[in-house]
Amino acid sequence: MNIKENMSKVAPLFLIPLSLLSANSIVCKEDASYFQKHFVETKDPERFNLQWAECEEKLGNKEGAMSAYERVLIYNPNNAKAAIALAKFYQKNHMNYESNELIDTVSNSRLTPQQRQIVSTLLDEEKSLVSTRFSATLNFGYDDNLNFGIYTKEVSRDEEEIDSVFHSFTFSGNYVNELDEVGGFSFQSNLNVYWQDNYSAHYYDTLYGSIDAGFGYGTSDISFYLPIVYRRMKYLDRDLYEQYGIAPRLTSSLGGGLLLNLELKYLERKYKDILYEAANDTLSNISVGLYQFYGENYIYAQAKYNSFDAESSTPIPFTDYDYFQLFVGASYAIEGFAIAGINYQYSHGTYSDEINSLENIGSLEREDDLNQINLSFQRELTKELKILANYTYAKNESNYELASYNKQTVTIGLQYNY
Asked: Please, which residues have CB within 8 angstroms of residue 151's CB and are 6 or more apart in sequence?
């Protein structure tokens, strides 16, 4: 909505003699009815409405002040004082298009140093509609079972658990353009990169990257994001796979510090090595989460359902399966010291492949049950720098013997946020 449209909503104007304006400072201590009671003609309606606007603003009546400032601009579109004050109101009410018009109007006018500073501040705030953030984390850690993952997709294994000290680097970037000319809409993009170098087992070094980009819509109570997603993984000493699809997400405030998060994913995975082409699959995912905030602290519960469907008629074993996951956890800020967190995950997987079991006659479908707990600690060293520590223990139980495992990982590192 532009300024002209706003003007059409203003009631008929009434005027007051300039001799009465000297009482404004006294009248504004109570209310602005003084102006409404003295609607008579005057030779200077611009000045009258400007003082009316200042009175309404002093009393905290934002709508009344905006209307009066708009009336000033009807009489004099070049009134810098009214234009700047109105631009500030527009920007606070997320009417960025209207605010920009006013800023452009007065930017080249003869302004006082104070007015010039206000315009500069408004321009800086406008620039903030485009935001860029990133986070970089360097961790050092120990993993006592690096090769657990391959057991779930191999018929047999010839080696015992492999452990190693490692270091890892994580980078996350976020870009948001609020698209101020289209109220509530935004363009967003996220980039994530993870690299892990295992000192004594480089075959299991990992390089993973993902990028998404799409349009979002948000208000004070709800936000929606519809991105296109692309992922790439280098693992087992090869360029392993790429994955792409869509992942819409909806977040809604339910009041009282309670947030609802809904996510859907549909992703296709293509293996780059011809030896793994039979493992190509699609992932269909639905996720529902509730987060309850208590100031800086929160608790949460999230449930996910994942369905992996193999594309090949003769897939590699254990690539066609369904997985249910439940996550619960809490984060607590120890005032003036650190933030501690605890997270628990339970997963149940059912596979379409049948296996032979010594405890059962005949064959049966493979089933896995994973229990995992994570303890985290972070302490702020500076506004941008944090020290992090994490411990994770996981235990997977399966009726397919080779898929049962225990795993522990501990890390300590530094995180820089900008």
From this structure: 157, 402, 403, 405
Per the structure block, which two tokens stand in for 352? Answer: 């379409």
CA–CA dist 171, 210 (Å, integer): 11
Amino acid, res. 136? A
What's this model's pTM, rounded to 2 decimal places?
0.69
Average pLDDT over residues 192-205: 95
- Closest C-alpha among 337, 324, 340 to residue 376: 340
DSSP label at residue 184: T
Instruction: Count other Cβ atoms within 10 Å, centred on residue 104.
Output: 11
C-alpha distance from residue 337 to each of 332, 378, 379, 417 (Å): 11, 9, 7, 18
Residue 293's alpha-carbon distances to 38, 109, 336, 337, 375, in angstroms, are 51, 47, 19, 19, 19
Which domains, and CATH codes, for the chain? 3-127 (1.25.40.10), 130-417 (2.40.160.40)
Contact 105, 73 (CB under 8 A): no
* All residues at 6 or more sequence positions from 114 whose CB lies less than 8 Å from its CB, including other chains: none
Q: Is a pLDDT exceeding 50 seen at residue 391?
A: yes
Please calculate the CA angle 338-343-349 and round it to the nearest 5 degrees.
160
**pLDDT per residue over 213-244, tens digit each?**
999 998 778 899 999 999 999 998 899 999 99
Q: How far is CA 285 from CA 233, 268, 324, 325, 388, in A?
A: 20, 12, 10, 11, 30
Residue type, 215: F
Residues 42-54, buried b or exposed e (16+ Cβ, 10 A)?
beebebbbbbbbb
**Backbone CA torsion sign across 8, 10, 15, 18:** negative
CA distance 237 to 136: 25
What residue type is 350 in one-letter code?
T
How far apart, in whole angstroms, are the C-alpha atoms of residue 150 and residue 148? 6
